[in-house]
TrEMBL record:
This is GMP reductase. Residues 9-338 form the IMP dehydrogenase/GMP reductase domain. Pfam families: IMPDH. NADP(+) binds at residues 108-131, 216-239. GO terms for biological process: purine nucleotide metabolic process. It is an enzyme of class 1 (oxidoreductase). NCBIfam families: GMP_reduct_1 (TIGR01305), PRK05096.1 (NF003470). Belongs to the IMPDH/GMPR family. GuaC type 1 subfamily.
Length: 347
């Protein structure tokens, strides 16, 4: 047994130190980033925020709504090939450029993903996602997908340490998804005791990825726009959001009325709800590692995404970053033991 004594940090443990700036207004801040990906060589320009591949978040409707804000959606993997075909045929290149095709790591997943990708070359992103990215199986699958699709941008995860980021990038991933346990409907830390505070995971994994010309997605744990900024400040190239984009018209969750008030059901992809829906129940050898919650229904996602982008722009003006790309260079985090003042309740 070993103990690592260095304290690891979450978003709640830091704030940005403000810095002198020549920026007059947040309208001067450019939130788009331009990447040329390591293996595929594909170029992409847009706002590097991604709706998480959860079936009560990342629907086709969400993809259309967020593409209008230049934001991405990792469409969940439970649509049929026929539904994908209809979506691809009915969407222009601008929407498809903002879409990731999610996949598990079975042979059936590979066949399905291949069929979906054949519908359009504009579908350039693959998101290979398993809860425990430390499995050797993920590395083998990434190698297989890289050989089959040399010109697609491959995202793989989830992991939280630099060694595994490097291994996935060397196996063919352009982008590694980082996060184990921080999610809003995730119970992995409770069920297994496994996890890594998300800000430290981002800082350490970004360093490992950037050293090899790879990129990372900070996935999970953002509860407000300030957390999104902190993820970018820590070095995340992309930030993935589940809970913050759930509960909207476009999220596709079931609407429930309680005492005349509208709520939307939101659940983790390893929750009892998800497994009942997609796998005929929780298999006898495993425990659910996600929960189901009711969120107040929030209407269209347009206002929410504008609010998030406005918050990140404002962070950039506080630290003097004219472009999102500069945010991490302009970031000094101070460690704190307080965040917002909740005397009148939470925002
Ligand atoms: P959020 O933005 O809601 O904090 O986190 C979203 C992320 O939580 C997802 O992208 C995914 O990585 C993770 N996640 C989603 N469902 C589950 C689940 O059932 N269990 C666990 N452990 N993580 C989940």
């Amino acid at each position: 047994m070993r103990i690592e004594h260095e304290l690891k940090l979450g978003f709640k443990d830091v704030l940005f130190r403000p810095k002198r700036s020549t920026l007059k207004s947040r309208s001067q801040v450019d939130l788009t980033r331009e990447f040329t990906f390591k293996h595929s060589g594909r170029q992409w320009k847009g706002v590097p925020i991604i709706a998480a591949n959860m079936d009560s978040v990342a629907t086709f409707e969400m993809a259309k709504a967020l593409a209008a804000h230049d934001v991405m959606t990792a469409v969940h993997k439970h649509y049929t090939v026929e539904e994908w075909q209809e979506f691809v045929e009915g969407s222009d290149a601008e929407v498809l450029k903002h879409v990731m095709v999610s996949s598990g790591t079975s042979e059936a997943d590979f066949e399905k993903m291949s069929a979906i990708l054949s519908f359009s070359d504009e579908l350039m992103f693959i998101c290979i996602d398993i809860a425990n990215g430390y499995s050797e199986h993920l590395v083998e699958f990434v190698t297989q997908v890289r050989e089959a699709f040399p010109d697609k941008v491959i995202t793989a995860g989830n992991v939280v340490t630099g060694d595994m980021v490097e291994e996935l990038i060397l196996a063919g991933a352009d982008i590694v998804k980082v996060g184990i346990g921080p999610g809003s409907v995730c119970t992995t830390r409770v069920k297994t005791g496994v996890g890594y505070p998300q800000l430290s995971a981002i800082i350490e994994c970004a360093d490992a990825a950037h050293g090899l010309g790879g990129r990372i997605i900070g996935d999970g744990g953002c509860s407000c726009a300030g957390d999104v900024s902190k993820a970018f400040g820590g070095g995340a190239d992309f930030v993935m959001l589940g809970g913050m984009l759930a509960g909207h018209d476009e999220s596709g969750g079931e609407i429930v009325e309680v005492d005349g008030n509208k709520f939307m059901r939101f659940y983790g992809m390893s929750s009892q709800s998800a497994m009942d829906k997609h796998a005929g129940g929780v298999a006898g050898y495993r425990a659910a590692e996600g929960k189901t919650v009711l969120l107040p229904f929030r209407g269209s996602v347009n206002y929410t995404i504008q609010d998030i982008l406005g918050g990140v722009r404002s962070t950039c003006t506080y630290v003097g970053a004219a472009q999102l790309k500069e945010l991490t260079k302009r970031t000094t985090f101070i460690r704190v033991q307080e965040q917002e003042n909740n005397v009148f309740g939470k925002e």
